Here is the input.
Amino acid sequence: MQEINNNNNKIKKDIKSMTLEEIIEDFISFGLKKYKAEQVFRWLANFACSFDEMTDLSKDLREFLNKKYKIISAKIIKKEISQDGTKKFAIIFEDGAIVESVLMQYKFGNSVCVSTQVGCKMRCKFCANSELNFSRNLSASEILTQVQIISKIENINISNITLMGIGEPFDNYENIIKFIKIATCQKGMNIGARRISVSTCGLADKIKKFADENLSVTLSVSLHSAKNDLRSDIMPINQAYDLEKLREACIYYNKKTNKRISFEYIMLNNLNDSKLDAELLAKFLKNMIFHVNLIPANKLKSGVLISSPIEKIHIFANWLMNLGINVTVRRTLGSDISASCGQLMAKTIGGKNFESNI
Ligand code: SAH
Here is the structure.
């Protein structure tokens, strides 16, 4: 019996991965009214976990929908709180895949950093993700559910979303685009597109494609070096898309969207923090609309690369400012619970068990 149910579940469509337009199209093909689709979409945006909760639909319709669609479930299996208030959640999906998501609460609102893949293929030397085996992409509904489950358990509204957790968003391109369309839909969660940020390690072809989507989402590019040999060494993606290709794609993005790009630059001691590095960075950014974020490198257990000392980071920032570069030094949050950039899953793969169920 159990097995039959599971099989049925597999052929059911994942309704939370569908845009409102797709649900409307389906409903119309079933002879249902458009406003019914909007009702269901609103329920899903409010984190309804089953059709039975949708009490303003008739029982017959709820039963019909239950046969056609599934609503994916997820569970928080661990929550950690940093001394600075940052919260990290381990979330498990139906097939047992676990990802981590981070909640940062600021004066301006609540921001959730979500994972886009289970593991990562990119193998950046400084990032804990590189120690995780890639197992699969997350669906749009699984990315959405990370935001909703945190909003529900903390009883807060989420105003900002960053796609900067585990995984490379542009390596899961179709699903993240779906996710953005669903999360920003005014008839659903209605998160402002400008309040969503996507970060990529530099898949140049996808940066151009993203520019063509016309989504008004904020784009971050993890640059970390403006020298091809060093970048190829610490970020293997540079072997496929070198700095020339990346620069060309970024200029295309600027021109097409008129939006600036936020360049992330991790400060690595004696590797990418010299005056020449600052000059090469300025040269790379020539004729672009941008902002540079200098990030003290977060410690990894296995890491051989260490952060530049903070004094050196400020000297580097000054060199850039003198070259006319718009630059800030990023505050690091949540490092005591491995919730900072590049640290997600670092502890978990170190063998720590999940104990606390919520
Ligand atoms: N794959 C995407 C998003 C995930 S990583 C990307 O590469 O942009 C999110 C950010 O954390 C990236 O800017 C990444 O370069 C940065 N990061 C990775 N490891 C880090 C570390 N040890 N210290 C500081 N930032 C790190």
In short: The chain has two domains: 6-70, 74-337. The two ends are 29 Å apart (CA to CA). Confidence is low (pLDDT under 50) at residues 1-6, 349-358. The CA atoms of residues 260 and 290 lie 5 Å apart.
